[in-house]
């Protein structure tokens, strides 16, 4: 197969790339087994907590309400993200299984990009849900099952349509033999840089699309909680302010953590000449498991109705 590589004065024959090799933390190979321990514990916590939350909401009739449906959607997104990334990373750490097929790599890329933005959009809808619950007395007539269904369709459609070009732009590139990805996952630019084509379009679309989706969500989330804070400070009922701040404060802190770890990852990636290349790789992996482990705890366990639902299910199990 003859492939034209940009920057070369002549064509040359090269076998098509059928798989990639994922190289996690090349400077810290000896520490990978130790790193796998906290990573596997976080993975088990994330999967167990989210599965418990989903089962509780499914089996408890009292939790069949819009707010808990949104929590279920968030848990489902977290579980898919974890299953897409962490098992492969642990297989690399434990068994040195670094190879990943050509199309499985781009499938992983698509799932990571689309589900990550879906999660951000779900945070935005949940922030709106809290705003309506606190600031509007007609909450039950606004946030209905129909609203959740429409919001779910919007979350999926918007983010799939905007992120599907990312793997398409990468898969169309010509890969001229290099197949070693210096990352634990098939991140868009980590893969695209292996090609012998110009990847400017890939980089620009990734940056513009990512910041358009995540940036707009973040602005609307901050706006919702600003309006919530203003409304809460006007409440005069005894204990109402503390209860509202306790509920929304934990939610806001978790969203802030989600945004901060993403911002740190972007900054370290931009300043890669001054930061060890292993730092953004580690942050990228952790960003797929830490929020997933914290979300069901902050959103679920701290909600009284869910705690009571879990207790009732445990009693039935006994």
Automatic annotation (TrEMBL):
<feature type="domain" description="G-protein coupled receptors family 1 profile">
    <location>
        <begin position="49"/>
        <end position="299"/>
    </location>
</feature>
<dbReference type="InterPro" id="IPR000276">
    <property type="entry name" value="GPCR_Rhodpsn"/>
</dbReference>
<dbReference type="GO" id="GO:0005886">
    <property type="term" value="C:plasma membrane"/>
</dbReference>
<dbReference type="GO" id="GO:0004930">
    <property type="term" value="F:G protein-coupled receptor activity"/>
</dbReference>
<feature type="transmembrane region" description="Helical">
    <location>
        <begin position="101"/>
        <end position="126"/>
    </location>
</feature>
<dbReference type="InterPro" id="IPR017452">
    <property type="entry name" value="GPCR_Rhodpsn_7TM"/>
</dbReference>
<dbReference type="Pfam" id="PF13853">
    <property type="entry name" value="7tm_4"/>
</dbReference>
<keyword id="KW-0812">Transmembrane</keyword>
<dbReference type="InterPro" id="IPR050402">
    <property type="entry name" value="OR51/52/56-like"/>
</dbReference>
<keyword id="KW-0297">G-protein coupled receptor</keyword>
<keyword id="KW-0552">Olfaction</keyword>
<keyword id="KW-0807">Transducer</keyword>
<feature type="transmembrane region" description="Helical">
    <location>
        <begin position="69"/>
        <end position="95"/>
    </location>
</feature>
<feature type="transmembrane region" description="Helical">
    <location>
        <begin position="245"/>
        <end position="267"/>
    </location>
</feature>
<protein>
    <recommendedName>
        <fullName>G-protein coupled receptors family 1 profile domain-containing protein</fullName>
    </recommendedName>
</protein>
<keyword id="KW-0472">Membrane</keyword>
<dbReference type="GO" id="GO:0071396">
    <property type="term" value="P:cellular response to lipid"/>
</dbReference>
<feature type="transmembrane region" description="Helical">
    <location>
        <begin position="35"/>
        <end position="57"/>
    </location>
</feature>
<feature type="transmembrane region" description="Helical">
    <location>
        <begin position="211"/>
        <end position="233"/>
    </location>
</feature>
<dbReference type="InterPro" id="IPR000725">
    <property type="entry name" value="Olfact_rcpt"/>
</dbReference>
<feature type="transmembrane region" description="Helical">
    <location>
        <begin position="279"/>
        <end position="301"/>
    </location>
</feature>
<keyword id="KW-0716">Sensory transduction</keyword>
<dbReference type="GO" id="GO:0004984">
    <property type="term" value="F:olfactory receptor activity"/>
</dbReference>
<keyword id="KW-0675">Receptor</keyword>
<comment type="function">
    <text>Putative odorant or sperm cell receptor.</text>
</comment>
<keyword id="KW-1133">Transmembrane helix</keyword>
